[in-house]
């Protein structure tokens, strides 16, 4: 298991998809910062607060982590490397768990990289944080990291369940897109800018559930629940992905 | 005889379609086993079952002495390498990195074998060039190199020379022969290029519609494909009498037909036959290639006539 995990980690770090994802994160954050900076300098004529740009990674995190993990895992399948592992005597359970942990690792690395870029930009080019305290900033990044790790694991298990089929790109990205759109409605209904929340009964429960326990939602707004809720949400999706994935992958006929 | 792989009553169904039906097959240790069959005959399915990618619907097999349901089968698989359909390589890594990756996965204590393997597969001078930029032949050789990590006892190659140029084919062939001779590695090679297979294989297995039609040694195959004259005569008993007297090697096919393995002086033979009262009805020179033998065994008799010299 561990030697396989080591080999998988090495593969991730050397793969083109991983490096492209890091570049996208850096370029997105820098360009977004420059754009906002221009607005603040020329239009608003104010000093920009760090909050304006600090957590912008969360906007693209679900799509980026999904796309990158799907790409790297799918390539392992299409290049025959998963097949080679089984042929070389790696147990299916080990191969699956190692891939899922690899997906989590990718999610964590992307979030950490984004955090570093964000910190550099915030410290050097903004007026500093106005509303967030250091523990809140740390909490926010922790929740982003946890959500990215869970999305990475979920996407990887999708690939393993579907045997490397390209359909996973559609499913994975569609889920990210649908939840992103749903979240806009959910947040709007739960926390309206004018007036109070008008939701009641089952609808309220469903909206709350999405907001509270679906890790994709954690990237849509600032943290507003307690840490156990986030842990339950991330842990729940992770357990579901692993259990279903293991059952399917262990019975799967590989070609 | 010690066998690397033994299948007994192996079947594999996809819904109602039987890809493998009651396959019994043995691969002797140290052999280069040429696995021959048409497209869709069941070659790749058998390889997939053998390598653990798919489970058999029925039957059982033993790999390196471990039964398919043995807990230690995955340990046995670690003594096996395979290139199934396409080489299993990481395109974002160099040849060296790919071999190190496989060493890591197998849990080898060091990477001492990597340099030797790179030289063996002729990729020692590729440096940091990514596998993505390799030619098809280089990828194929790298795939074989990956399969060779950890000194396996058994290597499965599914269509190993597909898409290779003549130089690449020669290199792969020489590599297989070298590994078999020097390291005693047993090979299972599935290929459509029969003439090429005939240059390396020491055993053959012919598969058709999921059944193993025949298994034979290369010696037996040579015997089958030996240059001969097929003689159709009025009485094969009289023919054998003449052949015995003349000490000529022959094989009786049926009551009227025999294959004679010698250069014959026809006028002399005709006289000898006349003496004993045997009439020659027909004579045909035969020189079957593996291709012709394959076609005669697995159907397509029209083609056989064309292939027989």
Describe this structure in words.
The complex is a heterodimer of chains A (255) and B (309). Chain A is mainly α and 255 residues long. Chain A has one domain. Helix content of chain A is 78%, strand content 0%. Chain A contains ten helices and no strands. In chain A, α1 packs across α6, α2 packs parallel to α6 and α4 packs parallel to α7. The longest helix of chain A is centred in the middle third of the chain and has 34 residues. The relative contact order of chain A is 0.13. The mean pLDDT of chain A is 89. Chain B is an alpha/beta fold. A six-stranded mixed beta sheet of chain B has the order 6-7-8-3-9-10, with helices on both faces. A four-stranded antiparallel beta sheet of chain B has the order 2-1-4-5. A four-stranded antiparallel beta sheet of chain B has the order 12-13-11-14, with helices on one face. Chain B is built from twelve helices and 14 strands. Chain B folds into two domains: 219 residues, 3-Layer(aba) Sandwich (Rossmann fold); 62 residues, Alpha-Beta Plaits (2-Layer Sandwich). Classes of the chains: A mainly alpha (255), B alpha/beta (309). Chains A and B meet through α1 and α5 of A and α2, β6 and α3 of B.
């Amino acid at each position: 298991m561990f030697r396989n995990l080591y080999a998988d980690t090495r593969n991730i770090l050397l793969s083109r998809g991983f490096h492209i994802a890091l570049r996208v994160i850096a370029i997105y954050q820098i360009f977004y910062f420059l754009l906002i900076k221009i607005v603040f300098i020329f239009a608003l004529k104010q000093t920009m607060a760090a909050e304006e740009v600090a957590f912008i990674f969360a906007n693209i995190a679900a799509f980026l982590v999904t796309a990158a993990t799907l790409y790297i895992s799918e390539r392992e399948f299409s290049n025959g490397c998963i097949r080679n592992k089984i042929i070389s005597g790696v147990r299916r359970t080990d191969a699956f768990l190692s891939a899922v942990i690899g997906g989590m690792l990718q999610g964590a690395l992307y979030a950490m990289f984004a955090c570093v870029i964000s910190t550099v930009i915030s410290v050097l080019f903004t007026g500093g944080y106005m509303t967030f305290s250091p523990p809140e900033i740390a909490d926010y990044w922790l929740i982003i990291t946890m959500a990215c790790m869970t999305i990475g694991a979920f996407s990887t298990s999708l690939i393993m369940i579907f045997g490397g089929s390209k359909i996973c790109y559609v499913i994975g990205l569609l889920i990210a897109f649908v939840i992103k759109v749903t979240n806009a409605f959910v947040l709007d209904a739960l926390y309206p800018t004018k007036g109070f929340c008008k939701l009641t009964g089952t609808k309220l429960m469903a909206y709350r559930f999405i907001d509270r326990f679906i890790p994709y939602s954690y990237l849509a707004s600032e943290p507003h629940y307690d840490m156990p809720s986030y842990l339950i949400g991330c842990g729940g999706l992770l357990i579901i992905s692993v259990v279903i994935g293991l059952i399917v992958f262990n019975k799967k006929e590989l070609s | 005889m010690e066998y690397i792989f033994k299948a007994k009553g192996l079947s594999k169904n996809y819904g109602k379609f039987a890809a493998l039906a009651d396959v019994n097959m043995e691969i002797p240790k140290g052999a280069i086993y040429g696995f021959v069959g048409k497209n869709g005959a069941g070659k790749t399915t058998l390889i997939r079952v053998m390598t653990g990618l798919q489970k058999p619907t029925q039957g059982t097999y033993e790999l390196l002495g471990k039964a398919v349901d043995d807990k230690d089968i995955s340990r046995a698989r670690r003594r096996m390498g395979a290139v199934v359909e396409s080489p299993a390589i990481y395109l974002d890594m160099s040849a060296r990195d790919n071999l190190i990756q496989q060493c890591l996965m197998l849990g080898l204590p060091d990477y001492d074998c990597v340099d030797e393997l790179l030289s063996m597969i002729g990729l020692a001078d590729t440096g940091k060039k990514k596998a993505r930029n390799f030619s098809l032949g280089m990828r194929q050789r790298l795939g074989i190199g990956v399969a060779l990590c950890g000194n396996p006892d058994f290597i499965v190659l599914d269509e190993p020379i597909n898409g290779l140029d003549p130089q690449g084919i020669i290199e792969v062939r020489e590599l297989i022969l070298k590994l078999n001779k020097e390291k005693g590695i047993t090979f299972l090679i599935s290929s459509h290029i029969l003439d090429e297979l005939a240059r390396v294989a020491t055993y053959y297995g012919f598969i058709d519609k999921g059944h193993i039609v025949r298994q034979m040694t290369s010696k037996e195959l040579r015997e089958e494909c030996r240059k001969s004259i097929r003689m159709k005569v009025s009485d094969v008993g009289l023919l054998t009498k003449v052949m015995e007297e003349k000490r000529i090697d022959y094989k009786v096919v049926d009551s009227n037909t025999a294959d004679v393995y010698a250069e014959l002086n026809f006028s002399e033979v005709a006289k000898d036959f006349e003496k004993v009262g045997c009439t020659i009805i027909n004579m045909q020179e035969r020189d079957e290639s593996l291709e012709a033998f394959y076609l005669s065994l697995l159907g397509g008799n029209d083609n056989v006539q064309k292939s027989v010299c």
